[in-house]
Amino acid sequence: MIELFDEDFDAIALVEGALILNKAVDPETQHHWAELELARLLKEAEQTLVHETDEKQRFDALLRLFYREWNFSGDKDAYFSSENAFIDKVLERRKGVPVSLGAILIYLASKLGFPVEAVTFPTQFLLKVTWPNEAPCYINPYDGEYVAKSTLRAWLIGNEGPLAKLEAKHLESSDNPTVIGRWLALLKSALLREEKYTLALRCTDLALTFVPDDPYEIRDRGYIYQQLDCHQIAASDFQFFIDQCPDDPAIELLKTQVSAISRSPVILH
Length: 269
Description:
With about 270 residues, the protein is α+β, with helices and mostly antiparallel strands. It has two domains: about 5-170, C8orf32 fold (Roll), CATH 3.10.620; about 215-265, no CATH class. The chain is built from twelve helices and six strands. The chain has helices spanning about 5-10, 15-25, 30-50, 55-70, 85-95, 100-110, 150-160, 175-195, 195-210, 215-225, 230-245, 250-265; strands at about 75, 95, 115-120, 125-130, 135-140, 145. Helix 11 (about 230-245) packs antiparallel against helix 12. The longest helix is centred in the first third of the chain and has 19 residues, at about 30-50. It starts with 5 loop residues before the first helix and ends in a 6-residue tail after the last helix. InterPro entries: SirB1_N, TPR-like_helical_dom_sf. This is SirB1 family protein. It holds the Pfam family Transglut_core2.
C-alpha cells in the first residue's frame, strides 16, 4: 500500500493529489491520460481567453467554456456513482460531483492566474473567488453558478436545522489534505454502495495512513472484511471499536456479531 502524507498533498495541485489517490485505490486509473487531458484543456482555455483583458470577464469566460462548451456538469442521473470521484472518469464523461468538478476547475483557474480556492462547506464543496479589495464570492462547481450568502445560509439550515447560523468558519479556505480526506470518504461510501469491497478496503487502508487507529475507520474496515468473508479479522476490528468507543449506539450490535463470529468455525482461505 502506497504511503501518502499531508505534506505530499500540500505540495501539489488538488487535482493531481486526487489522481494519486485514485491510482492508489484503483490501479487501472488512467493517470497519464488524465494528465494529458488536463494539459490539453488548459491549452484550449489559454487560446480561448487570449483576447480577454478584464480579469473578471476572463474568469467568466472560463466558466462558460467549462460548463457550456465543454459541457462539464453535475451527474444528475447517478450522483453517488464512484465514477464521479475518479478524475479520469470525470474528464472522460464530463460529469462529476462538486469536489471532482471543482478540483479540475481550480487547476485550470490557478494555471490561468485566477484567485480561486477550495471551501469544504458543510453541505458540499465550493469554490471561493477573491478579487483584490473585494469581498469573496462563491461558486457551486456542480453547475458553475454563483451562490449568494442567503442561499448558503438556507443550505446550512437544511443540513443542520433551523437554529444553524452561517459563520466565517464555514467559508474558510481548505487545504488539500482536508479536501482529499473528504474525497476519500466519499469514494469509499460510493464503492461500498456498489459492493466493490476490495477497492473500498484500499480506501480504508489509505485513510488509516493519515489517521492511524481511527476507531470508526477500523470499524468500517471490519465491515468490509466481513463482506469479504474474512470474519476473524473483522471480529478483531469490531472488538477494537468496542474497546475504544464503549458508548457508541452500535456497540451492542457489534458485540453480537463478534460473539457469533467467535462461535463459528475458522475457515482457512
